[in-house]
Amino acid sequence: MDNKERNLRYNKYVESKVPKTKEFPTLIYAFVVGGVICMLGQGITDLFLYIWPTMSLDEANAWMLIILIVLASFLTAIGVFDMIGAFAGAGTIVPITGFSNSITSPAMEFKKEGIIFGLCVKMFSVAGPVIVNGVAISVIIGIIYLFI
Amino acid sequence: MALMYLKVFLVGGFICMLGQILIIKTNITSARILVLFVCIGAVLEAFDIYDPIVAFAGAGAVVPIVGFGRSLAKGAIEGVKQKGVIGALTGGLTATSGGIAAAVISAYLFALIFSSKTKKY
Known about the structure:
- The structure holds two protein chains of two kinds.
- Chain A has helices at 3-17, 23-51, 57-77, 80-88, 90-93, 96-109, 115-122, 124-147.
- By secondary structure, chain A is mainly α.
- Chain B has helices at 2-26, 30-46, 50-57, 59-62, 65-83, 85-113.
């Protein structure tokens, strides 16, 4: 038996053993949890606009995002976020809470390797690619706008 | 008011469901989803498609990570309009600096205070 055939058979074997995610219910969970997080955000924005009516919408949204980020970071730290995340999948990853979780979670996990080379380095293991690609694309868009 | 919250729920939920569909169909990792959605948001903003969605759904379009990409692109575009070439470099990060700084400082603090537990699932 040559290697190629063996690899193919092994891949088939792996595929038969990988646990299948139940597709339809997870879609609903992601939809509901994601929607509820967004509604929470809208509630915070409305609250800010209610307390400080002179505040601009952009500023209220910035405060709302900061509050959600800190909240998600705290929930990650006390272990609640992972429980919601295991249940809701993309419902917690796609909102800004997932970005916050992706920074806090590796930071905590690699604390034992030291503050600088563990915590501070691994902090950006997921958020790094997001920021790098996001900044790169924003600079490209900005440069294109210079010429049109 | 209630209608606004319904729109927020539906649009926000729909964007999250798109992410979940990607996870199921392609087994994509969460880091790739975040990168992909940020880039989609930036491109949509560049073509002026995302602003109407934000006007329609409010936080439903701002809270998902797509909104992060949108503010990067929006900041770069506004930077170019106000400051020229340097604005293309400074704009994106200026617009998102609050969120990034909040995420970094809260992660730093909470990671120093709390230690990770063994995962149960």
